[in-house]
Write a structure and sequence with these properties.
By secondary structure, the protein is α+β, with helices and mostly antiparallel strands. Helices cover about 65% and strands about 15% of the residues. The chain contains 3 helices and 5 strands. The protein has a 5-stranded antiparallel β-sheet with strand order 4-3-2-1-5, with helices on one face. A hairpin with a 4-residue loop joins strand 1 and strand 2.
Length: about 170
């Protein structure tokens, strides 16, 4: 009788494991990606909200963003959770880099103001920190995409193993 109950519960356990790998785990992965996308919103990103409003981010706060919408450039404040997707983050980052380069060239060409040495050093340190922060963000994004690919491959292997185990029975 003990072996009969065990064989009765094996398909149920395999079904629960298959449901975990096919439904629950991918949903958590998508949820994590969406939260990461919402946490990495920057000024200049073009977004689409859950309600279908398209706009460009002009200001970010802790829990909200201000977007610019339409030809009249109407500004609306929205919560970050209302963002559905970012339309062109790469183009926005490239535009920010180009703006920064143009600003630095303009500063070099403009006559320099006399500044105390401490302020010059502080300004240089801030610029260096910004560059390092951008490089770190790009490195983390690359590692995250590699990790996602690794996890997806492992999930596919597990799903295949589950299907092979169910086929063997």
């Amino acid at each position: 009788m003990n072996s009969q109950t065990l064989t009765m519960f094996v398909p149920l356990i395999l079904l629960i494991v298959a449901m975990y790998f096919l439904l629950i785990r991918p949903q958590k992965k998508r949820e994590k990606e969406v939260n990461n996308m919402r946490a990495n919103l920057h000024v200049g990103d073009e977004i689409v909200t859950i309600g279908g409003i398209c706009g460009k981010i002009v200001k970010t706060k802790d829990e909200s963003i201000v977007i610019q919408v339409g030809a009249d450039k109407v500004k609306m404040e929205m919560m970050k959770w209302s963002v559905s997707k970012v339309v062109n983050p790469a183009e926005a980052r490239a535009a920010r880099k180009a703006e920064r380069a143009a600003r630095e060239e303009a500063e070099e060409e403009a006559p320099k103001k006399a500044m105390p040495k401490r302020m010059k050093k502080a300004e240089e340190a801030v610029e260096e920190a910004e560059v390092q922060a951008e490089e770190a963000v790009e490195a983390v994004e690359e590692k995250a995409t590699e990790a996602v690919e690794t996890v997806e491959a492992a999930a596919e292997e597990a799903a295949e193993a589950v299907s092979e185990a169910t086929d063997a029975e």
